[in-house]
Write the structure tokens for this entry.
Amino acid sequence: MMKLALINSVLVMAMTLYASQLKAASLTLNISNQQQQPLADAVVELRSLTNPERKPQRIQVAQQQLTFVPFVSAIPAGSVVDFPNLDKTRHHVYSFSPAKQFEIQLYADKPEAPITFDTPGIIAVGCNIHDYMQAYIYVAESSLVAVSDQTGQLIWPDIAPGSYQLFLWHPWQLEPRQPVALDIVMPVQTAAYTLAVDLTQQKPQAPQRGFGSR
């Protein structure tokens, strides 16, 4: 028993020393659904257990071709979002989500000011004129938050070694997924995660007729 404890202690010390020698690592995550297909629009947030930080950003969620682009965004709390209207028709953007309620009444081009999102949570965004238009903004506690691409992949090319909690979310998930522990200890590291989603759902698309031209 003492020998096993000594071996474990040596391994922990070696991993700690190795991690301390790394200034940064590269992390690639692959997200799939329950059918092992790449899952786009999945949000991954990494919360550091040793060095938490939050760096606000400025992004945009545009109205283009009568849809919101992008469908899912992810930002640290304190970030600001612009909602430019790139269509020829006017939109009325709003959200009733508890984490952030706002309204930008009928407008064209660009609103006078961006919207600040201070509180972590999920923001569902809609348009009062076009009911099918929908988007989501994931407001994170951490700066390490990103959205998977069409291949289901996210890449952090420059991430500090250490211990993290990994949170995974998608608008169509069947049930909340509990956070999992993730230790970054290698210069190049990959991991894969699966999230069960409603496979019948599709991204909002503008109807072919009935709402005028762009």
Observations:
- The CA atoms of residues 117 and 146 lie 16 Å apart.
- The chain has a mean pLDDT of 88.
- The helical segments are 2-21.
- The chain has one helix and 17 strands.
